[in-house]
């Protein structure tokens, strides 16, 4: 017998939060296994003297973070996180990662104990006592719920335009898999579900660091070959990072949308690339450019680079990840942008020759 329709709540309403609300609202309205009404937690702000929640509920448009796109009318915005989440069976977390801990402590004990989570958040947090903590692990630990992740080559504007793309859900729990896939998949947004939760999430965070490198390359007018080299070395460092810190993950996960595809799209189209290009060209600080150019949207790459560096430094592993290290040092002003190439031209990837040795070669 089919159970009660499941209620979804979207925790967040930025650029990506609003784009995913369009999809979740559409599926909730048409599929019987979901409750029609989708609640969306909106961090309240005033737009020309009017509350953003009221504007979205009246016009069905997030005029600040996703202008020009209508949200389905069954998506209802609520400025109180507890009110928005209290009846939900599925909590979709899509806020910038710096706000997760506070939101989770507010929600503690106020949600259904049977609720499941899905984190769309890209980034890490510093763990107490050193190292980094995955955002889905924070959600699981603080709220005592199961939590899967969704990452992919999904620039929010293009998803909202309903341009075809793929995404990856990392989920170990076989009961959650079909629920999450059905809530998220559409004709233009195709979902692949894999078991490798941690690797999917780590890819989503690390690619933003590489995107900063791609932005530096663009700012320095170094061209497409150099950018491809940065993307490739970035991918190799991502694989190595997962291998060292999250052993047991599968190499095949890097060939899903969350891996190589997200890396490419972010290094050509994302906000981290754009701000880092401007950082080189204008000489302004990252923070200043974030405030000036992003209209309230948040940057992830430079902060993730700092968190990763904190972890690498404490383990004396900076030289094993020269690209991540150089990007952190450029973002934090310890190196000039034009020193990027010096830092990576003797990359460990170039040292492990796959050719026959010089003596054998010279006899050919
Ligand atoms: N935008 C994309 O294309 C995209 C794609 C995939 C994943 N992501 C990831 O999704 C996550 C959310 O990004 P986004 O693009 O939806 O957001 P955003 O950067 O567009 O907007 C920032 C959001 O943070 C909210 N906010 C500001 N102060 C807050 C506070 N104190 N507490 C709670 N919320 C506050 C704002 O109201 C706004 O909704 C990030 O981890 C991002 O990396 C984004």
What is the count of DSSP helices, taking H or I runs of 4+ residues?
Answer: 17
For the sheet with most strands, the description reads: 8 strands, mixed
Helix content: 40-55%
Give average pLDDT, whole number: 94
Beta strand count: 12
Structural class: alpha/beta
| Bound molecule kinds, no repeats | nicotinamide-adenine-dinucleotide
Based on CA atoms alone, the radius of gyration comes out at 21 Å
Give the oligomer, counting copies of the same chain as homo and different chains as hetero.
Answer: single chain
**Helix-strand string:** EHEEEHEHEHEEEHEHEHEHHHHHHHHHH
User: Which geometry do the CA atoms define?
Assistant: globular
What fraction strand? 5-15%
- Note the gap between the termini: 72 Å
Give structural notes:
This protein is an alpha/beta fold. The protein is built from 17 helices and 12 strands. It has helices spanning 15-30, 52-59, 81-85, 100-107, 135-143, 156-160, 176-184, 197-219, 224-245, 257-269, 271-282, 286-293, 301-314, 322-331, 340-344, 348-351, 358-362; strands at 8-11, 38-41, 46-47, 50-51, 75-78, 90-93, 116-119, 124-126, 132-134, 146-151, 165-170, 189-194. A hairpin with a 5-residue loop joins strand 8 and strand 9. Helix 4 (100-107) runs parallel beside helix 5 (135-143) and helix 8 packs parallel to helix 10. The structure holds nicotinamide-adenine-dinucleotide. Residues 12-17, 43, 65, 94-97, 99, 120-123, 154-156, 296-298, 300 line the site of nicotinamide-adenine-dinucleotide.
